[in-house]
Amino acid sequence: MRRFWRLGGAAGVLLLSVGLVGAVPGGAVAGRDRAGTLSTASAPSAALGSPIDYTVYLPYGYADRRNATVRYPVLYLLHGRGDTMSAWTRVKADLDRMIADGEVPPVIAVLPDAPWSGRGSWYVDSGYTGADDPGRPVETALTRDLVSYVDATYRTAAHRGARLVGGYSMGGAGALRYALAHQDLFANALVLSPAVYRPLPPADSSAREYGGFGAGDERFSADVYGRLNYPALLPALDPELPVRLFVAVGDDEWANPDPADAAHDLDYEAATLYNTVRRSEAVSAQFRVVDGGHDWDVWRPSFVDGMRQLAPTLSVTPPAGLPRPLHGTAGTDWAGGIAADPDGGATIGYAASGPVAGQPYAGGLDAVLTRLGPDLRTPQWTVQFGTPANERLYGVVPVADGGVLAAGYTRGDLDGAHPGSPADDGFVAKLTGTGERAWLTQLGDPSKADRFYAIAPAPDGGAYVAGYTSGAYAGTSAGDKDAILVRIGPDGQVGWSRQFGGPGEDKAYAVAADASGVYLAGSTSAGMPGSTHLGGVDGWLARFTPDGTRQWTAAEGGAGDDLLTGLAITTAGTVVATGSTGGDATAGGTDALTVAYDGTGRQRWRTVSGGAGDDAGAEVLALPGGEVAVVGFTGSALGVPAGAADVLTLRLDRRGKQVLAAQYGTARDDAVDAFGEENVYATRAEDGKLLVSGLTIGSPAGGGALGNGDVFVASVDPTGGLP
């Protein structure tokens, strides 16, 4: 069982998330015979002026005094037209079993009764005033009065990430509306055979009969229906409050004999719903077509399947966000590195698509370096440089005199000595502690593309830079692209260069060095010299002596695609590399791969970490005692999910055992770019904390997004894993 911890409050108390797979309150391991309880109750409603009856499911152990401080996620399950609150009680056995088996966390389930409008309220606030059965403010009553009462009465986790609303038929329509119209309340919705129609219900639909969508003395108003229906809600959704939908329908739904209404069959409408909502930036959706009709033969297995999909995102702990401010421009910007400064601040590098802090903008993407004070918020200076073409940064490291070195690539004449350059060149620049540019070195094959993707400081104040060449920069080309390693002196002069590779495409993404040697890591499509090709794209690791002699090369991966993108030399003397693997993923997508080797090229341990989504390591940092911290991104629920892709922090002990997994971010993608590649950097500060900088497409709590892709800076405690 993985352990997910977060730092709780100023006292630093560690709290265990109730959302853990397999965790059961009270310290007991649940068995199949440990059942929850059902009881009925009523909640006062100011909107209705009368109580709301409901049935409540409390999980096994809720009443145990050992769990007196435990809080739980809540399911709100809406019944169909004409049914009662007892309808959903048939899934009690499923909930008991899934909780006992660890498929879902212990949850509270609230099953409200909806008797209004002849049990055809459609769960909306009705404006029908007919004397026979006037409409009622049902939506307000359930989303405000009932939710408030439940949070005050039971030990719930009172935030949207711990709430799920579900329903079938009319209840499915209600669940969909509540999730879209009340993003502040619900982050998840289970939408089963929803009775939703666009643009209007068919002539024989009961949605027209009961007054739910009425106005005045009209039982049905097309204007009211259109205003409340999901197509009208989608444009106003907030992408910073993402909604996860699970939509399911039977393949034997009733077929309307009227050809004009054939598109209103619920299987057709459910598919239309899915293909509409999935295009919203605020919605992630899954869709299932199940064998069966408009009955519990569809709804019960779909409830089980939907809970398996959505339950991992339910957590009593709110997701951890990103701190403000963000850095960048109104356009798209890319993270490019972070270095710890002696005064406790940091220098960040990034590529900007416009002017920053009043600096001149050359065009395309410019390289930007900003020094932040010890609060990591206040800029002390900003330097921007570039050409009319694009420049990218891929690493920033400190030097002993208080300055920094930065590496990347340019598509222009950055140093003034490469006019008319037809392809990318690598470059390294030094800035002083006050932001003056001391020197800039641009190099590469004159006619082919060359890029630097990594930089490590050298003992003399120079650096090792690594990347690839498409030509013959430092030797004869072995194939499509070759890896390169270049030694740069403290004056910016090239000491030596090495080019090596196999017949395919080879790139170096990471470099690390100490006084005894240099390590390089990357990817290869057809194998590197001195190693065996394992299949697909392989990760690789190589060691060089300080004078550039290659000592050994090792391949990492399996039959799928694998790569290594981060390196660190630990206090135990091993070199640890991180990246991703698609060849032996544990649960789907790609997983974060971390491996350790000794100085002779012998593997010491190998760890794969991941979940159902795409996960990857980007940076690895040495911690005391031979432990390491891995920073990357995750599309899984390894901690408490914040959005689409989150920043990931892992802590591994000296033997590679995972002892911490945490994630944090915004409601949208963080630490990963539009191409699914990691865009996050990390280093260790003098106080032992991790300094993390990366790309975010979202916005921190309280706002602050500058454009379509900004750069964040966070200080992370490696013992807690969250900023």
UniProtKB/TrEMBL annotation:
InterPro entries associated with the record: AB_hydrolase_fold, Esterase-like, Mycobacterial_A85_antigen
Q: Which domain of life is it from?
A: Bacteria
Which Pfam family, just one, is annotated for this protein?
Esterase
Enumerate the SUPFAM superfamilies for this protein.
alpha/beta-Hydrolases, Calcium-dependent phosphotriesterase
User: What is the protein's given name?
Assistant: Esterase
* Species name: Plantactinospora mayteni
